[in-house]
Design a protein that fits this description.
six-stranded parallel sheet
């Protein structure tokens, strides 16, 4: 599929990509996903997640990221997603940190980090250097793997 085939997705609520080994990006910066509530990206080896997610800033509630070996950062616009309730990040070994303004996500109820060694080191409950940045989140699970 080309980007033009994804041009009019204003009513899309759930989007999942799995095993897309050649995918380098999902959408361009101007893509409007104004109804997107859930995004799941699983095993897309080349994907790095730039600021494409900004098109769902007012609607995204669940972000699931699994097995993205090249993912190094999450987009800063993530911290402006006021409806975001759930983030699950698994098996992203190069992911170095979470956005610094994560405390702005007052609706965030669940954060799970699994198999991300740098994130575990930095956000380990009670001992990690940045634990206090996420300690306010009601349900956190940070597992080294």
């Amino acid at each position: 599929m080309s980007l033009t085939e994804f041009a009019n997705l204003s009513h899309l609520q759930v989007l999942a990509f799995r095993d897309c080994d050649n995918m380098k990006f999902l959408f361009n910066e101007t893509q409007q996903l104004s109804s997107l509530e859930t995004l799941s990206v699983h095993s897309c080896g080349l994907l790095t997640l730039p600021g494409w997610i900004g098109g769902a800033v007012d609607t995204l509630e669940t972000l699931l990221i699994y097995d993205l070996p090249n993912l190094k950062t999450l987009p800063e616009c993530l911290t402006t997603m006021t409806r975001l309730k759930r983030i699950h990040i698994s098996d992203c070994p190069q992911l170095l940190s979470l956005p610094s303004d994560l405390y702005r996500l007052t609706a965030l109820e669940y954060l799970c980090i699994y198999g991300c060694p740098e994130l575990y080191r930095k956000y380990e409950p009670l001992y990690g250097e940045y634990w206090l940045m996420i300690a306010h989140i009601q349900n956190t699970s940070i597992i080294e793997a």
